[in-house]
């Protein structure tokens, strides 16, 4: 999903708030070492990458996930924080089972092993990640390869 696609789905106002959170996350994520990525089982995560290899096209689950440290440090007032919950509340209509309308891959995170399998790209991603981890691919080539695989799923 691109920034424009995210904005179209969640409104420019919410996309703006997410942009603010992304700015705060740049510093926080660098210091934590990708803990969130590891916790959700992202198979595109590697300590060798300087940042997310598919950041520009990351799935909406990634775009809408921020740890409590980021939410606490973000310069958002209570009204803005409540606004961030509005899409989830509206889409689910108060029914947590309808969360799949917002995030259709739940409970499988799209970049986890199960998620990659369901997208049909597990083997291709695994091959790139292995080659990158073993030093057979430089970061630039690994990033480009992963973006290409994820775009053409």
The total of beta strands comes to 0
What is the number of helices?
9
Q: Give me the Rg, rounded.
A: 16 Å
Overall residue-averaged pLDDT value: 81
Overall domain count: 1
Helices and strands, in N-to-C order? HHHHHHHHH
The percent range for helix content is 55-70%
Strand content: under 5%
Structural class: mainly alpha
Terminal CA distance reads 12 Å
Q: Detail the poorly predicted runs.
A: none
Task: Give the overall shape.
Answer: globular
The largest β sheet comes out as:
none
Explain briefly what this protein structure is.
By secondary structure, the protein is mainly α. Helices cover 59% and strands 0% of the residues.
Structure description:
The mean pLDDT is 81. The chain has one domain. Helix 1 (3-10) packs across helix 2 (12-32) and helix 8 runs antiparallel to helix 9. Helix content is 59%, strand content 0%. It is built from 9 helices and no strands. It is globular. By secondary structure, it is an all-alpha fold. The protein starts with a helix and ends with a helix. The longest helix is centred in the N-terminal third of the chain and has 21 residues, at 12-32.
